[in-house]
């Protein structure tokens, strides 16, 4: 038997003659019981690995010759006295013929086994060809991308960063999902964030201090450009990777449900409104907590928009349970649990930015529901009086 299987042989009375588990090959010689008349069952068991397919070769022989039948097959003589004059006894001839027959059968069996092993190896090689080809292509793309990134870093004047490991991880995730499986607006948003992080175009190659969202610099210094730009800039490559990998997952679901034009408007509006709400929350929390650090906080990144998208996604899938780190919670509570956990594990992140994204998402859901209700009432009114 070739493959990774279990083998079971049952008698007509449902007794196991053979019960092998996860054997790659084997051979058994079985003798039928005297009282077990009927059909014997041979079962190849793959229950432990139902996902992967197997290629199996097996053969069996049934032998039930008696001594008289052997005599008829190989001698054809009825009277043993007819051969008394021969020097070689009949038993010796029978044993020699039996040995020859056994050796021929073993040769045929080994030839069949080797032939099927060759078929199995060829099948595995052909089935792995596409996988090896994709993996090789992926390695080539990674090497080309790495070289281009290093060249770009060498010849472009950009702000200093810790490294580009996050970019490589993001590229691996995009290739794993497949370019063709990512909706256009989601893909464009990811590419735009990566280009801005790399300092392209040169007109948008600003430092984080120049674009981060800060109450003092927006309210007192009137640097309103921060409201428009803060969401599209990230502190380092891992910050970019975490946000964009989350956008790939959320954006693909929402864009397929809402459509590309609607999703594009949501991304554009959330990237601005979240920053406006963050400014208001910074002032409100500074008054409530009597802590002026909220006014000096300078935040950047796409996290606020992602929290807003998470609220929208939970609204469309209200009965689904999601995993947040080590917890399983209802989708409606996932954004709040994630907000608290991130704040506890990473205290330096912008609490006001994440909270602003949740509030903007809740407001969007509420306005959408009331708009649909009013639209339904107007449609009923005009249909009644029309």
Radius of gyration: 37 Å
> Globular, elongated, flat, extended or rod-shaped: what is the shape?
elongated
Contiguous runs where pLDDT drops below 50 for at least 5 residues? 65-71, 73-78, 157-162
Portion in beta strands: 5-15%
Short description:
By secondary structure, this protein is mainly alpha-helical.
Description:
The chain is mainly α and 386 residues long. It contains 13 helices and five strands. It has helices at 67-74, 90-155, 165-177, 184-197, 208-211, 215-220, 225-229, 237-258, 260-289, 293-296, 303-316, 331-345, 351-385; strands at residues 5-10, 16-23, 41-45, 321-324, 327-330. The strands form two sheets. It has a three-stranded antiparallel sheet, with no helix packed on it. The protein is elongated and about 120 Å long.
Produce the secondary structure layout:
Elements: E1 5-10, E2 16-23, E3 41-45, H1 67-74, H2 90-155, H3 165-177, H4 184-197, H5 208-211, H6 215-220, H7 225-229, H8 237-258, H9 260-289, H10 293-296, H11 303-316, E4 321-324, E5 327-330, H12 331-345, H13 351-385
Antiparallel strand pairs: 1-2, 1-3, 4-5
What key phrases describe this protein's structure?
single chain; 386 residues; mainly alpha; 3-stranded antiparallel sheet; two-stranded antiparallel ribbon; 13 helices
């Amino acid at each position: 038997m070739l493959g990774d299987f279990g083998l079971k042989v049952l008698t007509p009375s449902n007794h196991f003659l053979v019960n092998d588990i996860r054997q790659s090959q084997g051979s058994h010689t079985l003798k039928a019981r005297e009282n077990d008349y009927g059909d014997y069952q041979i079962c190849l068991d793959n229950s432990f690995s139902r996902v992967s397919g197997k290629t199996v070769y097996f053969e069996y022989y049934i032998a039930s010759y008696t001594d008289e039948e052997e005599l008829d097959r190989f001698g054809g003589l009825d009277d043993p006295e007819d051969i008394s004059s021969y020097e070689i006894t009949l038993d010796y001839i029978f044993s020699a013929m039996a040995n020859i027959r056994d050796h021929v059968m073993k040769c045929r069996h080994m030839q069949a086994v080797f032939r099927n092993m060759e078929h199995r190896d060829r099948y595995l090689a052909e089935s792995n060809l596409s996988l090896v080809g994709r993996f090789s292509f992926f390695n080539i793309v990674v090497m080309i991308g790495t070289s281009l990134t290093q060249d770009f870093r060498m010849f472009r004047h950009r702000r200093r960063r810790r490294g580009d490991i996050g970019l490589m991880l993001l590229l691996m995730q995009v290739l794993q999902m497949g370019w063709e499986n990512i909706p256009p607006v989601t893909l464009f948003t990811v590419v735009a964030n990566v280009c801005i992080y790399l300092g392209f175009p040169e007109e948008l190659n600003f430092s984080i201090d120049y674009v981060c969202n800060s109450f003092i610099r927006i309210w007192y210094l009137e640097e309103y450009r921060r409201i428009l730009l803060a969401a599209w800039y990230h502190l380092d490559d891992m910050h970019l990777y975490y946000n964009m990998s989350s956008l790939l997952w959320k954006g693909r679901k929402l864009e397929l449900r809402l459509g590309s034009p609607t999703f594009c408007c949501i991304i554009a509006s959330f990237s601005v409104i979240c920053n406006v709400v963050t400014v208001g929350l910074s002032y409100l929390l500074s008054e409530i907590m009597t802590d002026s650090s909220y006014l000096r906080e300078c935040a950047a990144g796409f996290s606020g928009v992602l929290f807003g998208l998470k609220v929208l996604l939970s609204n469309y899938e209200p009965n689904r349970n999601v995993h947040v780190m080590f917890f399983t919670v209802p989708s409606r509570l996932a954004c709040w649990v994630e907000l608290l956990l991130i704040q506890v594990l990473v205290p330096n992140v912008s609490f006001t930015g994440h909270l602003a994204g949740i509030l903007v998402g809740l407001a969007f859901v509420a306005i959408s529901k009331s708009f649909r209700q009013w639209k339904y009432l107007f449609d009923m009114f005009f249909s009644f009086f029309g």
